[in-house]
């Protein structure tokens, strides 16, 4: 039996729309791990003051029960998104450890940190949801939901963070489908957008911090996910202020922004798969 490693990380990338013109942001400080493991690293300093990504994979325990570890690390300093959102430093790690067992739902360790975050010059503080930070396996989320279904409001609060209902979330988890949320429970100094764990920056768009995708055997963590321009409520209706401010030409002096597109700043995932026979 063999083992295939999978890990990738990037500093930034995406697409920005300004009226009829679309601009592609090339993937910056991107790195991928060889299927046979090893190590990779990328460092850039011409976009942010420091953007570093690392991937790593190797056997960490031998013998009759070998264990394989895959890890990604992302570090960004002096991040500025159109001068509106500024982050002094942010980092994340995604680490997977597994052996030759058949169940893909092996343990992961995910960590994230933010320092000196401001929006339009106002200090804000992302607060980590410790419930989600402590989920090492996909099945742990099902157990967390089951434990809260006896307390209707708590189950609803957990499901709301995944933009669904308790029953719908239970169905997703039973069928082992991918689900997505944010590890940030709240941001001190900023009001939440009607979409769960998403925050509105007038004239720029919406932002999510620590966006986490979960499925058995896989985790991806995006430190910042921006959706530029016109935004909508969960009901489908436009938010008038966002529409009005986003439709003008981009000009940092008037605090308007792109009319569309999206951007990821800091992203990493890592896992591995046994291959037989």
Task: State the shape.
Answer: globular
Number of domains: 1
Question: Which class best fits the helix and strand makeup?
Answer: mainly beta
What's the N-to-C terminus distance? 5 Å
Q: Which regions contain 5 or more consecutive residues with pLDDT less than 50?
A: 232-256
Description:
- The chain is mainly beta and 277 residues long.
- The chain has one domain (2-275).
- It contains five helices and 15 strands.
- It has helices spanning 130-133, 138-148, 152-161, 166-174, 240-246; strands at residues 2-18, 21-28, 31-32, 38-44, 50-61, 67-81, 85-98, 108-119, 122-128, 179-182, 184-188, 199-201, 205-215, 218-228, 260-275.
- The strands form two sheets. Strands 1, 2, 3, 10, 12, 13, 14 and 15 form an eight-stranded antiparallel β-sheet that branches. Strands 4-5-6-7-8-9-11 form a seven-stranded antiparallel β-sheet.
- Helix 2 (138-148) runs antiparallel to helix 3 (152-161).
- The radius of gyration is 20 Å and the shape is globular.
- The protein starts with a strand and ends with a strand.
């Amino acid at each position: 039996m063999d083992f295939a490693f999978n890990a990738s990380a990037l500093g930034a990338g995406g697409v920005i729309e300004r009226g009829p013109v679309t601009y592609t942001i090339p993937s910056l400080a991107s790195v991928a791990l060889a299927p046979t493991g090893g190590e990779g690293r990328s460092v850039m300093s011409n976009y942010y003051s420091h953007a570093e990504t690392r991937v790593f994979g190797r056997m960490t325990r031998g013998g009759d029960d070998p264990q394989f570890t895959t890890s990604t690390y992302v570090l960004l300093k002096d991040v500025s998104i159109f001068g509106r959102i500024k982050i002094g430093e942010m980092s994340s790690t995604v680490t997977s450890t597994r052996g030759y067992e058949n169940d893909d739902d092996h343990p992961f360790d995910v960590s994230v940190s933010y320092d000196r975050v401001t929006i339009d010059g106002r200090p804000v503080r992302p607060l980590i949801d410790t419930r989600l930070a402590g989920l090492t396996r996909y099945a742990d989320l099902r157990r967390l939901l089951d434990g809260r279904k006896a307390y209707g409001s708590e189950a609803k609060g957990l499901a709301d963070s995944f933009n669904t209902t308790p029953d719908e979330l239970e169905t997703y988890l039973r069928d082992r489908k991918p689900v997505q949320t944010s590890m940030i429970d709240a941001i001190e100094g900023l009001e939440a957008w009607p979409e769960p764990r998403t925050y509105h920056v007038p004239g720029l768009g919406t932002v999510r911090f620590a966006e986490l995708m979960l499925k058995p055997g896989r985790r991806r963590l995006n430190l910042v996910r921006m959706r530029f321009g016109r935004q909508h409520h969960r009901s489908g209706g436009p938010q008038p202020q966002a529409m009005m401010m986003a439709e003008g030409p981009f000009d940092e002096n008037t605090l308007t922004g792109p009319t569309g597109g999206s951007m990821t700043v800091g992203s990493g995932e890592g896992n591995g798969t046994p291959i037989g026979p």
